[in-house]
Each structure stands twice: as C-alpha cells, then as structure tokens.
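Need tokens for this chain, all 92 residues.
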Amino acid sequence: MAKQRKPFTKSTTTAPSLIDQARDELFGHILRCGVTEAEPDQQKEWMDDTVQYLGERYPDLDEEMLGQVRTLGERFCRPVSRKVEVANSAAE
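Here are the structure tokens for all 92 residues:
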C-alpha cells in the first residue's frame, strides 16, 4: 500500500518588522541617490538627514533601532575590500 502524502500547504508568512522595512527603504535610497560614490563627509551628512527622515516615517522605531539601521546603511555604503593573497602575487 502506498503511503498517502499530505498536500503541500503554504505556510503563512509574517510581514517584515519595522526595522526590516526601514533598513530596506534606506538601502533603496542609497542605491537611487548614488551615495556610495560620494565623499565620506557627504555620506555622513546624507545619512544624518535620511535617518532623521526614517525616524519620522517610522515613529515606533526607538533611537537604538534607528542606530542599528544607520550602522547597516553605513556598512552598505562602504566599498567591498578584497584581500589579495601575497603568496599568489609572489608566485607570478
């Protein structure tokens, strides 16, 4: 006798948290505004203004959560650093 399989049921998904929404919105703004190409002092000024805007847009986020979003945004703006292996370059 073949084993009966349970039909696949789609699990309910939860909406993203406020901090996730704010983070995603910040990343979108960073990409649209070209902040990654700006000088560090310009990035800081832009980030100050944008995080203030996000704080107004998401009033339920406290200062700590906004700080976390800002940290993620600042990391997102940094260029990728690639570690070059010295052994490989010496072998050539």
